[in-house]
Amino acid sequence: MTPPLITRRHSIKVAAAAALATSPLLRAALESKPAFKIGACDWSIGKGQDLAALELGKKIGLDGIQVSFGEPGHRYDLRKEDVRKEYAAAEQKHGIAVSSLAMAILNGIPYSSDPRAEQWVRECVAVMPKMKQKILLLAFFGKGDIKGKPELTKEVIRRLKKVAPEAEKAGVTLGLETWLSAEEHMHIIDSVGSPAVQVYYDTANSNKMGYDIYKEIRQLGRKNICQFHCKENGFLLGNGRIDFHKFKEAVDDISYQDWLIIESATGKGVSTFDSYVHNQKFLRTVFR
Fold first, then answer.
1. H or E, element range at 280
2. How far apart are CA 285 and CA 243, in angstroms?
């Protein structure tokens, strides 16, 4: 009789269990250093493009903050060396990291049509190595939405082709957060033809559009997903539409072990602070 096939995941679990059983040092190292780091968007905790987000994030219990990059002249304009030094000092002081940068400003000043947006993305790419950052979220919502707009999508591809070599040289990944499906994202990625262009995958956005997020994550794979927003609209994580245990299985299947960034996910009648304390604890329970 032919023995049953052992799945790859089961084999890995068996090997890992054996290693942990025989190596106290390895077990201690793994227990002291979680594979996943938990962060939040600065705007979601009410501190958009504000240095105070790092201190607040530490109080919440987060490992990091996704920091906004906006228009020139802002008090915390990361184009300025002194502002970058302030962020570096705050990271050291509070023991919390900048997880990535994000350009939510593109929702109102579209990357697909506004020349300022194109220039600002290039400026952000130039800034990122100075902050030791590798992932930049480019937002495509509101005025910046390109869903069902082939001419705007074509222009986005044209602009990405121009900036992608600069991003590659800087070691920066441009993560597209949009209303698009996995197939539509792959059209852009394949058209640009650069490893610097990937998807910034948002659970709630994709679920709202009716996409099978667990299938899409596996479809896109680690090669095409740079980071995740763990998000619910109007619910605490674990109380909404997303099955985060199934989400973890999909994330494990693509071998992603990096930042998980919480966005939205506030409960009715629950303060933002208490919501994010709950959310980070919930994710740590699921992902550890």
1. helix 272-287
2. 14
Nearest partner of 55 among 26, 28, 90, judged by Cα: 90
* DSSP assigned state of 51: T
The dihedral formed by the CA atoms of 155, 161, 163 and 167, expressed in degrees to the nearest 10: 140
Contact 72, 119 (CB under 8 A): no
DSSP H or E stretch at residue 22: helix 8-22
Cβ neighbours of residue 100 closer than 8 Å, sequence gap 6 or more: 39, 66, 67, 133, 134, 135, 136, 137, 175, 227, 259, 261
Give the pLDDT score at 288.
85
Output the pLDDT for position 20: 44
C-alpha span between 25 and 31 (Å, rounded)? 10
Rg of the Cα atoms in the chain: 20
Provide the whole-model pTM.
0.89
Instruction: Give domain limits for the chain.
Output: 35-287
Dig out the tokens for 40 from the structure: 């939040």
pLDDT at 131: 98
Question: Among residues 6, 4, 5, 9, which one has the least CA distance to residue 218?
Answer: 9
Does the domain made of 35-287 have the CATH classification 3.20.20.150? yes
Structure tokens at 31: 């227990």
How confident is the chain (288 residues) per 10-residue block, as mean pLDDT?
44 47 45 77 98 98 98 98 98 98 98 98 98 98 98 98 98 98 98 98 98 98 98 97 98 98 97 98 96
